[in-house]
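Support reply, case 0932

Customer input (verbatim):
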Amino acid sequence: MAKFLALGIEGVEPEEYGPDEGSVVSGAPRFRSWTRDEADGGLSCGIWEATPGKWRFENPHWEYCRILSGVSVVTEDGGEPHIVRTGDSFVLRAGFKGAWDVIETTRKDYVIRT
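Our regenerated output:
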């Protein structure tokens, strides 16, 4: 097995789903996710995309994100809204609770540690 893995999605079937029932605040957001690699220690990486809409969520794991395209607003409960767009990077620490509002279809790459 090669030790170099490009994170492209050509030829890779995405998982398609939506937010948990009851968590949608507005719109009808849909997700596509391409898990590209998993490693020992609870690490995984891939690409995720969401269509416009707003939902509430809790992030039980640590996650690094880089926005590849689109515009979203991520708001932690009790915190200020953060507008994230193409080129922005951020971390959602384990235990994050808040809302994700996709303004323009948003695609990100991610690394998760569970």
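We compared this against your earlier run and they match. Two observations from our side: The chain has one domain: 15-113. The mean pLDDT is 97. Please reopen the case if you see a mismatch on your end.
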